[in-house]
Each structure stands twice: as C-alpha cells, then as structure tokens.
From TrEMBL, chains A, B:
GO terms for cellular component: cytosol. Keywords: Glycosyltransferase, Ligase, Phosphoprotein, Pyridine nucleotide biosynthesis, Transferase. It holds the Pfam family NAPRTase_C. Residues 15-139 form the Nicotinate phosphoribosyltransferase N-terminal domain. This is Nicotinate phosphoribosyltransferase. Catalyzes the first step in the biosynthesis of NAD from nicotinic acid, the ATP-dependent synthesis of beta-nicotinate D-ribonucleotide from nicotinate and 5-phospho-D-ribose 1-phosphate.
Amino acid sequence: MSFIIDWKEDRNLTLLVDFYELTMANGFLKSGVGNKIAYFDLYFRKVPDNGGFCVFAGLQQLIEYLKNLKFSSQDIEYLRSKNMFDEEFISYLENFNFTCDVWSVNEGTPVFPNEPLVVVKGPIMQAQFIETMLLLTINHQTLIATKTNRIVRAAKGRSVMEFGSRRAQGYDGAIFGARAAYIGGCTSTACTIAEKLFGVPAVGTMAHSWVQLFDTELEAFRAWVKAYPENSLLLVDTYNVLKSGIPNAIKVFKEELAPLGIRPKGIRIDSGDITYLTEKARIMLDEAGFEDCKILVSNSLDEYIIRDVLSQGAKIDSFGVGERLITSKSAPVLGGVYKLVAVEEDGSIIPKIKISENPEKITTPGFKQVYRLFDKYTHKAIADLITFNDEIIDDSKPLEIFDPIYTWKRKRLDNYYAKKLLNPIFESGKCVYTSPSVKEIREYSQNEVSNLWDEVLRFDFPHKYYVDLSSNIWEMKYSLLRKHNLKYR
Amino acid sequence: MSFIIDWKEDRNLTLLVDFYELTMANGFLKSGVGNKIAYFDLYFRKVPDNGGFCVFAGLQQLIEYLKNLKFSSQDIEYLRSKNMFDEEFISYLENFNFTCDVWSVNEGTPVFPNEPLVVVKGPIMQAQFIETMLLLTINHQTLIATKTNRIVRAAKGRSVMEFGSRRAQGYDGAIFGARAAYIGGCTSTACTIAEKLFGVPAVGTMAHSWVQLFDTELEAFRAWVKAYPENSLLLVDTYNVLKSGIPNAIKVFKEELAPLGIRPKGIRIDSGDITYLTEKARIMLDEAGFEDCKILVSNSLDEYIIRDVLSQGAKIDSFGVGERLITSKSAPVLGGVYKLVAVEEDGSIIPKIKISENPEKITTPGFKQVYRLFDKYTHKAIADLITFNDEIIDDSKPLEIFDPIYTWKRKRLDNYYAKKLLNPIFESGKCVYTSPSVKEIREYSQNEVSNLWDEVLRFDFPHKYYVDLSSNIWEMKYSLLRKHNLKYR
C-alpha cells in the first residue's frame, strides 16, 4: 500500500534556478533570439568512485517539475524587485507555457560517461531556464542509485536497508535519496515518508535510547517483545554485545516468545568489530536453538567494508547502511552537465561546439540518439553508439564501431541488436510518458545491470565500456575542432 | 529586499522520520512509559576535514519544524495501514501537541566535538520522535556552514560566491545549503530561491550556452553588454581565453561601454590553469586601461586550491565555488548524534550512559549546560566547559579546568569570563526565541570565529580546542563507567 502524491503540487521550486538562467533568458529575449530553437544534452563525464557505470534515476521528479512549471505572483514580485528584468520578460514569465520536447533514458538504466541521458529541444529561453533543476534532479538521484548499486552488489544477495536520513544533505537528500536507493537495489528504507510518497518499504525497530530508558537491558528487551512479539529485532550493543546484549536477547526470546510459539526476528549490532562479533553471535544464537534468528549489522558501512567482512566470514544476514550511502560519501558528486549542442537556423540544425583547454570538457555537438548494442546470443551489452537523431542502425547488417579518440581501435559487430536509449518524454511541452512504479524501475534496473559483463561491474579498475560515436557524428565533431584549432593555434 | 516565507507551512515533513522512532514511540506508550521525562543531547564527535571547529547552523529550520509539527489525516491513514500501531497511539498522534523544552546554541557559533549543541527535555515519546529531523537539519546546515567558512578563510578577504545548486544533493541541499553557505561567510549565491526565502543575495551572469548561441563570441559579448551595460561580467573561456575571450571582451568594453561612460564589471574564467590565465588576463586588462575590471574564477574550487593559487600569485578578485562547497565534497557528512542522557524518576534526574566497545561512542550523561570561557583582555576563547545545567561558574574566582581523558593536564584560569552557550528555544512546547536574519547570523559568526586563536583556525592539524567537563560531571561519568566495567569485565 502506498499513498503516492505529487510532491510538486504544494511546493513551488520555480526559483530554484541559478540566477544566470534568468539574466540569460531576459538577455535572449532582449537580443531578439529568445525563441530560437536550441538543443541541449545532459550527460556526465566521469563515474563516481571510478566505477564502471551509473544507474540513471530522477526522471519522475524531473517530469513533475516540468509539468508544474509556473511562476507564482510572489515569484514575479521578487523578480520585479531586482530591477534587472524587462517588463516584456516578466510578462513572458507570468504567462509561462512550457513548449519544449524532451527525450530521456529510462530510470534504472545503466549509463556511461559522455552519452546524452536527457535531450531538450525548444526555445532557448525555456531550454536554458530548466538547466539547474534538470541537473540537480538527475545528478542527485543518479549519484545515490549508483552508489547503492555498488553496496548492494557487495552484499551478494543479502538485503541492504537504507538507514541514512539523519546524515543526508537536507530533507530531499533523505527523501529522494531513499527513492534512488531503492531503485539502486536496497530492499527497504528507514525513511518513513518515502513509503508514503513512493511506496518504498519502510522498516525499523529500536535505538539505544529504548534500552537506556529502562532500568536494565533485560527489562528493555522484555518490554519490546511484549509490545512487538512478531517484530522482535533487538539492538544488543548498548552495554556489551557478548556478555549482556546477546544473553539477554536469548533469555527474552526463550521466556517471552517461545511460550507463544513465535520465532525471534533477529538481533542488530551497531558497533565494535563486525566480523568477530557476528561470528560469536551466530554461535550463541545457534546453540540456543535460534538458527533462524537473523543478524543485522550497521555502523558506517559501505561496499568496501561489506566486501571485506564477508570475505572474512562474518555471519551477516542483512546490512543497514547509512551516511556512506545517502551521501555517497566516498564520491559525493555526480558531475552532470547540460550543454548547448545545436541551434536551428532557417529550418536546419546547426551543430554547436564548446572548446576547452581541458579536452574532456569539449562537447559533442548535434541533435543525437543513443543506441545500446547487445549480443544476440548472450544478450550482454557490447557498446553504446551515439548517432545523429535520424540515423538508423540496421542491425541485420554488420557494423563497425571505433574508439572516438584512438580511432585505430575498431571492432566489427555481426550478431547484435540495437535498442534506442532515448525515449520521448515531452512533445511540444506535453508529457507523453508515464513513469513506472519504483518497484518496476528497481526490477528493470536489476535486469539491465545483469546484462553488463562482470568486467564492467568490478568496483576497482573496471573495464571501460565502449561509448562510441557514429562516423557521421565523429566527422562533424572533428571538422569543427579542426576549424577552431586553425583559428587559435 | 526579501520575501521570507515559512517554508514549512505548505510542506508536510512529519513523516520524514526513521521508522523506528514510530515503533519506539508506540512501544513506550504500550509499556506505560510514554510520558516519562527524558533528556537528550545533540552533539557531534569529529570535525569534518579534520578541522578545528564547526559553525553551528540550521536552528531556524529546526524551530519551524517543531512549531508546525502535526500529523495530517493522510499521515494517520498511512500509519494505520501499517497494522503495527495501537489505536491509542494513533489517536495520540492525531491530537499531537508538542510540549518539550529545547535549548540550543545560537546559529553561527563556532562549536566543538562532544559538547551538547541542542538539548531536549520532554516526554520520551516526543523527545525521541523528533530525533531524525533534528539531526538531519543540524547536520546538514552545520556541515555546509563549516566547509564554507574554510573556503572563505582561504580566500583571504576576496568574495566567495556559492555556485553549487546543480550538483547539490537534492533541492533542499541547494536551498538550505545556500543559506548555510551565507552564514559560513559567502557573499552571495547563484541559488535564486535562497534570496526569495532568506534574503541571501542572488547573483549571476552568463553560461557558455550564451556565447555558443550567437554566431561568434564577439557578437555574443556585444549582445550581452547591450542588454546589461551595468552588469558586464563576461565568460571568456568558451573557445580560447587568451586568444579569443579576453581580446573580444576588451574590444566590446571599449566599443560598447566606453562611449556610455560605463566601466566594465569583470570577466569569468571557468577552465584551464587559473594561476597562469589570471596572471595573463590581469596584464591584458590593465594594458587596455581596465585596471578596475574584476577577475572571477570558478571550476571545482575548494579551500586547498584557493590557498594554492593565491600563494602562487594568481590575480583573482572573487571565487565562484560550486560542488565542493555545496556537498562539502572532501568530507560530506557531519556525524551528529542525539543521545538519551538522563530520565526523571520521582522528580529527580537520573543520568543515563551508553557504553560502547568504541570509547569515543560512550556518552556523557546528565542534564547539562555549556560555558565558553574567554580571556578578559584578548577576548579570545580559551575553553568550553560542560557542567550540570544548574552549576554556576563564578568568573570572579579562579577556575581549574582539566582534560577529561588525560586528567593530569590541568590549567588554572584567572582573568576570564564565562558565557552560556545553550539558550532556551522552546519552553513547554512554546517557542520563546526569535531567529535573527541570516545577515545578522553571518555577522555574529564572523565575530565569533575571530575570537578563536589562529591555531584553532588552521586547516590542517589545528590545535585541539579544550572542551572540558566540570568536576561534577566528570565524577558522575567516571563512576557510571566503573560500575558498568565491573559488571562486564
């Protein structure tokens, strides 16, 4: 059961926008180019944690933002008070009507550096204005879904619960972070509102304060199982795990639950050496006849610690992961960018490039599509190919792909099939897409990730997945680069 | 001018709560201890980035949350659907009435590990319930104010603008992050809504897309200064800074602004080697007669890069700092905790301790106050002293303070005065405190930080500021520790 509501309806984030989007929009209008049709690509350049891929997330919130985009009378009053904007522009905003086309990758899709994930086509004033919210929404949720996916893979089938709200970066960091974590593979969250809003299962039992409030740990445990006989997960590390917590838990399981014929749920350990304590705990529980009693651990976990303790033989059934997941602590930024790639002049699309002293900051111009190429027999993903939007990949014929930098590195594909990654989301400002539920997105994502080669899934030094340019795109980009280089060399 | 609104009024975050706060609250009620009076401390154990102190922030939002705390009919419906909570508890929530006392440090105050920053006294059901939002609010804003303060100090008087919205962790990460950044010392933000909501000055000019949209960079610059002659800050790195951007900027300044008698505002460089490019840029601008034209830089800056480029002689007037500030990238978590420290039994306050295998996780029990001790002549802060709430520091008499771990390290203070850090915020659920404006908080903070010794301000290996316990607190804690150790050794 879930009470999914449209979070945007009662919340006006229109002015959550970099101020330069406003000065530019006003300037475009003033310069007579406000309605020039422009094309923008949203993409990132680097996978956080030097991982092999990201898990794309945030599209549903992006759609809700764009659907509800309007300027309140308070917004207008504020803008007018800045004494920087023309009345023509203010009146444009008062009657704002979103008319762009938007394409996007599906949420949950594994994605790679330098491929467009969201493409926007529309009047420059509008397409530019939405930059901040597009980036903020996609950067955040994709970051957290990506980190979570690493942590979940480290747990090797054990459940991972998202426990990070209190250390998140702001309220939405917690709320949409819990959503993204579920998409990335968590089984549940401690963040209650994420169940109310999105249907992410919310779970939780007790904190140390429960144990402290009672005169003794034994009394505290007894009170708990009396209140929740079916939900007896006891936190055993308030005083001493092995000498107090677990013996008291076992005593209460035997004295309070056994007579009711109820099996205990589990114990949680939140401090100390996880490997040592869980191995001892398992033995103690088993000897007491509670082989089915689960051991849950928390305390500053991430994919590296989980991998380590499991390889040491720690006896753990599930992980509660907090701050290192909800902030993607070891790599807390996804550097998505949103770049102008083309403009329309007299009905034709003119590719636009941005040069930089840093070669990785040079853009790939043009109005584009992304194809994912799969092996016909293994269904594993082989490569992504960036083409012009109207290029057609005929997968009945062999295809030669090549590295866009080391162009001598070429590969001929025979038994493959191609899938378009960018789907229409808005057409002339009208939403033409329905978001799946987070549960569906989560399942889709797990399936798509399973189509990647193990080499790409590695945490450290993964194999670099191919993201290639079609010959047409490559030639256009190269000729623009040559032209600019000749000018400034 | 600002349009400060109460962000909480149209936004229900009541269920932004760890699920265990709800199971515990219901359990407390069921166990007959729901209205037992409990005392909680909020504090952190470690300064991010191994810095010397944090800048406390977020109190205003905490107050707004507590003032508006209620359960909507939708919240109630959701909770009922979980089939875990008693009707008595649900009815308690339906008629929820916050009755706790709350004390807090003022926003902007430099604060240190292991001292209570927020103290809550009230019925355990309520005092426990608010844990998640208290921590989330204070952890986030304190983290960002702290990071910003480091960056601003590195800039040595040059202005620092907050540019990070697009890479923030969610919408509130951007919005409240901009607020915290201003408290920490930024002069302005790109986040427009932060001006509307809090009065943080919003600024911005152009992105690369402005330059790309026009046929040439020269045309783009000309269109800009025609639209904004008084606000001519030009982004000069779209094609080539020294061969195209700056020469074109100078040309436009001369041809478009000089005839109007207007001086140019500045240029912005967002890529390449900052030291090299700004030194060259300064010479070119000076030679063209634009000595007053400012140079603004951005591109993945933080306190370390700013310190480095300034020490190399880079010619920079102001910094735009994005992702590394708004996520506190190098240390993206403040690990604030909220711990039960006492309960009332028959009218007297019983201190409660939490033991841990990790000694730094052991709590300091008791209902407490924090005094900051200042030198009477230099007005520099000497130490903080944690006392029982009713202890009085008579600063007309000498005072001996001592390290709570290395107790032989003692210091006698003669010429000092003591200030209480914890002030009443709520009394029996009623707010008794009015938040200053962010501008006032920012000024207060700068003054308080200037009262710290330089040794504490150092970025790396700062001197550890003394946070000591009064003899009374120390003796009570030590005796509880001994008692527990005897039990489990």
